[in-house]
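Mods, move this if it's the wrong board.
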Amino acid sequence: MATIRDIAKAAGVSQGTASNALNGKGNVSSAKLKLVHDAAAAMGYTINEKAQLLRRGSSRTISVILPNTAHHQYQAFYVSFQSYCKRANYQVRLYITNDCAETELEAMLDTKASMAVGAVVISSIPNADKAYAAEGLADVDVLFVERQPAQNSSYIGFDYVKCGVELAQKALDNGGKQILLIS
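Not the wrong board. C-alpha cells:
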C-alpha cells in the first residue's frame, strides 16, 4: 500500500504538503491539491480512518443509549436527535438496553472504546453517574435525559411527578375547566 511519502514523491511535493492535502488541513494550493489527489488515486491510496481517529483522539460519533424503542417518546427523541446530529455532520450509534444495567454499562464501555465524543443516556441504572464513574467512564461526556441521576450531572428533562402535581393543582384551581395538555 502506498504511503504519504510515496504519494509526495510521485506528486513532487513535501510529505507535509501531501499529508495536509489528503487530510484537508493547512493551506495547500489547488494545483498541489490536484497533484496529490491524482497521485493518491493512481496509487490506490485510501485514508486510514482508524489512524485518523487515533490522531484526533475522538470520533465524530455520539452514542445514544435508550432503555427501548417501544415507547413513542424514545423513538421521537432518537429520530429528532439523529436528524440534528446528521445535519451537524456527526454519526449516531444507538444502543438499546432493555432496562438492563449490565447492558447499559457495556454500551458505555463500547462508547468509550470507540472514542465517541459523548453519549446521551436515558439510564436504567440507579445512581448512574456513580456507576459510570466506578467503571472509569468519567472522561466520556455523558448527558442524562429524562431520568435524572442523583448527583449533579449533565441532565436535560423535567420532573414528571412535579409536573403532574402542578397540572392537577391547576385543574383543581380552575374547577377542572379549560385545561389543555399536549404531550
